[in-house]
Amino acid sequence: MILTKIPTSLGSMNKNKGCEKAPDEIIKELKNIEVNESLKEIKYEVSEVKVSGNLDETNRNIEKAQGDIFIGGDHSITYSLFKSLKSKNKGLIIFDAHVDLDNYTGTPTHEDFLRKLIDENYLNPKNLTIIGTRRYWKNELNYIKEKNIRLFTSNQLFEYGIKNICDTIMENFRKFDELYISIDIDVLDPSVAPGTYYLEPNGLKLSQLLHFIKKLRLLKNIKKIDLVEVNPEIENKITTKTAAKIIAELL
Fold it and tell me: pTM to 2 decimals?
């Protein structure tokens, strides 16, 4: 497995400045984990995407990047990484407290990259599911209804049960030639991962997210995974350890 660091906060519009330091901090914590909970020895190689001061240039570098698990950085990296998938039959699962479907003006940011992927026809909204959402803007809700985007809110996860929802998602997403999974650390409750800019109460427990991850990892069509929005400048110890734990369970 190749872990690819993408040390950039350019797509956060200075709102989550500091998350560019997360890849190094997470890898540092990961080195303390030799065996994951599945009793599998942790083995990986590390590479890094060249980041410049120009977001468009950085996005081009990200699109050409090789790897299996990509460690950000802000959530805008998903735009270029998903674009790089070659198949027309591709699906996207996002774990996020937010839907990232805000109105956009130009280069994709961590608030609108998903809307751009859909509007630019890189992603069929029928091939998308967002898990753990609990904060929305009115324009985003209108867009969700217009495109019939499937969400599983935090409350729905608790009401219907993680296991049932996970089984449904696996059945729906095994049909794709290529599957991309994106994990925004703010899908977790702030008590679990306080080191990110957009803290939203009523999030997932780590055990719930890990249940999803361990099940989804059984799918044979996963091509890329990312983990984003950890900010060591806000809080380092708990959140980077949590992020390293998530990656260890993905390996």
Answer: 0.96
